[in-house]
Design goal:
The two termini are about 25 Å apart. Strand 5 and strand 6 form a beta hairpin. This protein has one domain: Imidazole glycerol phosphate dehydratase, domain 1 (Ribosomal Protein S5, domain 2). It is built from 4 helices and 10 strands. Helices cover about 35% and strands about 30% of the residues. It is of the alpha+beta class. Strands 1-2-4-3 form a 4-stranded mixed β-sheet, with helices on one face.
Amino acid sequence: MTRTARIQRQTTETKIELELCLDGSGSADVETGIGFFDHMLELLTKHAAFDLKVRADGDLHVDQHHTVEDTGICLGLALREALGDKKGIRRYGHFTLPMEETLVTVAVDFSGRFALAYQADVPAAKIGDFDSELLEDFWQSVAANTLCNLHVLLHYGRNSHHISEAVFKAAARAMRMAVEDDPRMPGVPSTKGTLDG
């Protein structure tokens, strides 16, 4: 059975429709109104081998914060819904990714509990017209709404675009590993018998 989710979220600040398939081919159809953010979501989709469709209409006349944060909320909710009871998944994933002069490690545990350890500051306040501090806010929203442990570590790097891209690609590869079927463990991968917290 294909693991999918569809999330619709509307507030006074944003209107977002998001569709996710965990068992995809890396197909992205993303329109948030923020070019750099669209690029990052496309990278995430490709390297996770998900299929992702996003339509986000946010208050960009104010700034990019609500659109980025709320898209993270929707992606997190979609991941949680698509994973279901998590039977048969590997649960854990990790990846260390080189991106030219940059090296990033991301590790994830779809544990049903939220924790974020984010150590990947970028040197530039803006990447193009994108507010780079929103990168951490996005991953905070994803992890909090997926209910997962997410650890992001920048070992070293100079270029802000490379650092951002490495984080998204490494997170994608870690998630891809974690959601894969584990043929040796068909049940819930926990001695508690549940991954609901």
